UniProtKB/TrEMBL annotation:
InterPro entries: FAD/NAD-bd_sf (IPR036188), FAD/NAD-binding_dom (IPR023753), NADH-Q_oxidoreductase (IPR051169)
Species annotation: Bacillus canaveralius
Residue ranges of every copy of the FAD/NAD(P)-binding domain listed in the record: 5-325
rRNA-binding is among the record's keywords: no
GO function term, MF aspect, one: NAD(P)H dehydrogenase (quinone) activity
Cofactor(s) listed: FAD
Protein name: FAD-dependent oxidoreductase
Family named by the database record: Belongs to the NADH dehydrogenase family.
Keyword Repeat: no
Amino acid sequence: MRKPKIVILGAGYGGLMTAVRLQKLVGVNEADIVLINKNDYHYETTWLHEASAGTLHHDRVRYDIKNVIDTNKIEFIQDAAVEIQMEEKKVILENGEVAYDYLVVALGAEPETFGIKGLKEYAFSIVNVDSARQIRNHIEYQFATYNTDADKKPERLSIVVGGAGFTGIEFLGELSNRVPELCKEYDVDFHDVRMICVEAAPMVLPGFDPELVEYAVSQLEKKGVEFRIGTAIKECTPEGIIVAKGENEVEEIKAATVVWAAGVRGNSIIEKSGIEAMRGRVKVDPDLRVPGSDNVFIIGDCSLIINEEINRPYPPTAQIAMQQGELCARNLAALIRDKGELETFTPDIKGTVCSLGEDDAIGVAFGKKMVGGKASFMKKMIDNRALYMIGGPSLVFKKGKFNIL
Ligand code: FAD
Ligand code: NAD
């Protein structure tokens, strides 16, 4: 009898977790498993703000996929998915196509630009290793060039961060640590540098604990970050951004660097493939399958899970993507063995910690609020745990964060 073929798209938190769990659960004689990813490496999306600011080298945030999968059990294909053809049960890749019996879509997120003019052309986003390297190099180039300009343009050293959600705040935490180093390295006066965070909502980290938010704002302000709250970016230009405050107030902020960190959407392949979605995120069935499909699972940032308590979607996180990956692997094993009912997914949210740089953070974990070194320690433990869950102790030793206070 022909073995069923399981294809996993994306080797991020969700996809790689599914793969490493499947290789333990399913024997080589039970299924062919194929993992497809753009790069031959996995990157820790949750560490990209560090690589973008330049406080952590980009090689520290990635590792070879073949180091964590069993290549006797999983065939790895380095290629980019272009379209999913659910009726034909195949995926079109940049360099060919692959047929499947079961599919797991774990292609992650893309920046949501809300159609704001100029963002795609002139702003950077923290998306992957390539974009992180580009942001770091671009900022460094501005510092390197500043003293060579005859008129020392102040906007060269102005860095705008759009959005004070978790990504924006974590990036500012790293950036505000990196800027003094850059000033020293390139003989720049710290007072010539501006780090401006523009947030449309009336508060930083909307919806998060106000006491913790106050701590974060005060810590970042001490390190030179200016907050423009209740101010929305309306346009991005080659010179900087146009913002609106209230109904009539419009202002231009000149800046050579604009980092857009104001929200994400699911991978555009979802919509391109004609799968019904809200901003690229599919409201999956409780067993994580696409409604109406018995063989396609969608997990991670491309999926949408409703928090029934508040009737709103859970924010997409690595925490949820990994938990979905574990359950998805179990459900796939049950399907290929024809073993009754599939399990249903309920996120187990252990907490949220937002880093404010190397040695500072805010967070709520296991119901307890924490700030400073304690929260930062917790954040590093969470980062190390993610490595452990995928690659065991050896990956933690290779890539883990041990610079603990
Ligand atoms: P990802 O982990 O992003 O993986 C997607 C994978 O798909 C990547 O390997 C990518 O290369 C690949 N891929 C993309 N397109 C294609 C294609 N066309 N073909 C083939 N492969 C493709 N969440 C937390 O829980 N805690 C945190 O502290 C946290 N911090 C964050 C910090 C930052 C700076 C950012 C940006 C996000 C953070 N998040 C955090 C959110 C978290 O990173 C995401 O929710 C999580 O990565 C989603 O997992 P995923 O598997 O869906 O996608
Ligand atoms: P987000 O949606 O959480 O935050 C985006 C912010 O941008 C919001 O505060 C929003 O009001 C603001 N915004 C939107 N449009 C704007 C505009 N035109 N001008 C100015 N501000 C604007 O997005 P994110 O921070 O990228 O996070 C994406 C996901 O990743 C979330 O689910 C988040 O929870 C998760 N994440 C988690 C962590 C963590 O747990 N430490 C870190 C980073 C990201």
